[in-house]
Amino acid sequence: MHYAIKTIHQLRPILQGFRKSRGMTQAMMAEHLGIRQQTYAELEANPAAASVERLLRVLRVLGVELVLSQAEAGDAAPLRPRARTKVTASQPEKASDKVREKVRENARESVREARAATGRRPREDW
């Protein structure tokens, strides 16, 4: 059977369906992939955050083949060039840009501190 995926949001139910049709639990999938069940559950819940390489590994375990095909001419969305903003090196950096970057850095540091305080395990590299 073929499934046309037009948006990334369609991937979650399709992955779940293939897994369940093979009679596999998330724990079984995780074991085949060499990761924790929680890590696999996170991938299945949000496949948009996974790399293509990881998705391909999951598909291999499920025995699913990824096939790309070109849409019919009438189905394809027209390509429109994006408007570009020209930025030159001589433009001075705005003060608000500096403030925004400082806020982002402070937020990143807060997240690092919170993760360290909770003893959260680092993300598995698989």
From TrEMBL:
This is Transcriptional regulator. The lineage of its organism: Bacteria, Pseudomonadati, Pseudomonadota, Betaproteobacteria, Burkholderiales. One of its GO terms (molecular function) is DNA binding. Residues 73-126 are annotated as: Disordered. Residues 94-126 have a biased composition (Basic and acidic residues). It comes from Cupriavidus taiwanensis (strain DSM 17343 / BCRC 17206 / CCUG 44338 / CIP 107171 / LMG 19424 / R1). Residues 15-69 form the HTH cro/C1-type domain.
